[in-house]
């Protein structure tokens, strides 16, 4: 299911903010009209690939923030688990030093609504028992949400595949460039490179130079 150009699913859930404070009713709605948001899911606290991604987002946080972009993480762990992991030093496999919000989707409804849950509930018609097929955690989903609350970019990695945070930043830059200048960004576009007009003439001119 593609969520592109659709409103980001709304939610209110517990989260850890500033690395050390639990809030009970965190929502992305606070950013609508003011900021773009990079909202990303990861599978599980206290694992292996996940801390590399979470810390990589923290390393690039200043680059996102200077562009007015908020970064928010989310997994199906509890807020207490998030807080414990945030309090654990990097040398011990923790993510101490991360300051952006991390949402606790313990009901798995946020992951379900963003279509990144790595499995699904099934009902045994004979016994009436509910079961879960797959992994009851979130895939590595990344969503770029514009100031209107619309999802403008999404990609989803399987559990073993870490994402590229530099490319997420590039997508943010491309989105902001197109909205400011009205041009489109060709393949491998990066900030500072030439974009092009969305016309036959514009494409021809661009291709003739490259």
Describe this structure as you would to a colleague.
Belongs to the peroxiredoxin family. AhpC/Prx1 subfamily. This is Thioredoxin peroxidase. It holds the Pfam family 1-cysPrx_C. Thiol-specific peroxidase that catalyzes the reduction of hydrogen peroxide and organic hydroperoxides to water and alcohols, respectively. Plays a role in cell protection against oxidative stress by detoxifying peroxides. The protein has 210 residues and is of the alpha+beta class. It has two domains: 151 residues, Glutaredoxin, CATH 3.40.30.10; 47 residues, no CATH class. It contains six helices and nine strands. The chain has a seven-stranded mixed β-sheet with strand order 2-1-5-4-3-8-9. It starts with 12 loop residues before the first strand and ends with a helix. The mean pLDDT is 95.
Strand and helix layout:
Layout: E1 13-17, E2 21-26, E3 36-41, H1 49-59, H2 61-65, E4 69-75, H3 79-86, E5 102-104, H4 109-113, E6 117-123, E7 130-138, E8 140-145, E9 151-157, H5 165-181, H6 200-209
Parallel strand pairs: 3-4, 4-5
Antiparallel strand pairs: 1-2, 1-5, 3-8, 6-7, 8-9
